[in-house]
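User: I'm writing a tutorial on reading structure tokens. Could you give me a worked example: one chain, its sequence, then its tokens, then a sentence or two explaining what the tokens reveal?
Assistant: Sure. Here is the example chain.
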Amino acid sequence: MLDTLLESLITFGRVFLGMFCLGLCVFVHELGHFLAARKRGLLVSRFSIGFGPRVFGWTRGGVDYRLSLIPFGGYVALPQLADMGELEGDNEGSESFGNSSQDLPKISYTDKMIVSVMGAVFNLLLAFILSLALWAAGQEISRSFSQTKISVVPTVENEEGTEIPSPAAQAGILTGDSITHVDGVAISDWQDLSSRIVTGIKRTDEGLPLTELTISRNGETLEIPVTPILATKEGMRRIGVTQVLMLEVGEPIDASLTDQVQTGDTLVSINGVQDFGVQELPEILEKAEDSTALMTFSRNGNTFQVPISFEKVERAGGSFFYDFGLNLISQSDKVYPNPITQFSEKMEMMYLTLRGLLHRNSDVKVRNMSGPVGIIDNFQESVKYGLVPLGWLLVFVNINLAIMNVMPLPVLDGGHMLFATLAKLRGKPLPRVFMEKIQIAFAMFLFSFIIYVTFFDLGRVADKF
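And here are its predicted structure tokens:
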């Protein structure tokens, strides 16, 4: 009972931290608008985290600082910039990109552009500051993830939950192969490999998904086309490969083995098998006689073999693990990616996602995206692995938030900039009625989108329990 309560409190704490992280990203974005507006002399009537009715807050200097009921973002109410009163719950008169409203003074085109863009700028500044901290701190990266040597699984699960033959195995790819290119683009690690397969846009003449791989095998380069399946309930492209495990000995070590193995010894093979993934390990061990695995280790350039007895231990829920009397952990290296590298990697990931969403040959769907619930869940999951992974995710979310907000769509900052530019080119304000209707229409579309992706976010979260 006590363990269950403690686990629940830990989970609640992680979720709360996830909500705080998302709120921090929104707060920094809106702070950029707020400070820019104050600096340019604009009227600010409200600073809100969330939309809709006020939950609590305070008023100071004529500004209503508040937390609102619907936690899907936030806003700074700028009556001289855009009439968003109906959407923000504000019925005060305002000016819509130059449409005068009673006593409000007009503002310049420069004011509008600076104030609109500063939200994104502040998100990028936060991402850059975090990148500097991550650069200094470094991060332990598993060697299984920092290279592209693969393990081929025999079967994969399709959208209907049926196990079918692995596309990679059917295409002749072997465990131990290294994938060097996906669809002609060089890749450097597992994240790059996975992202390019999932967001691929190639198809066969029959209209089936197609992934063209360049394989390195025993010094030979092979070009192998693979037909991915749409796997699991997410319906995303998979070819049936996992990372090759790269393991070493960690603490603790059973007393009976301390004279044979040491912390840091590198695992070379088990029962003569050098390359294998997590799904292949049970098959290798089932072939062992008397529940003894002959493990080959490397230490200071020398290899040696140790027969180690193991026990298959069942867990609640049907899962299991193997107890070898020693702790086999992933080999890892500490890396120090500079901010430019971090930004370029995150931008590349976002580009692939957006291209996948917009390209007609892609299998990426809107439902695969994450809304506020999914982002909070990702934050709370990253907390399990420490502050550095959490920092990397914060960098990614802030870059995404900056880019998404400068897209030229009504309601978003980029839409304000677009309409201000159109008004400037026309030489007169855009019609107020037109502005109100298009803002409301796109706001309804945006909220509908958030509700749609949240439905799938909740399903993904529920699947974990």
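What the tokens reveal: The first strand starts at residue 46 and ends at 60. Residues 2-39 form the longest helix (38 residues).
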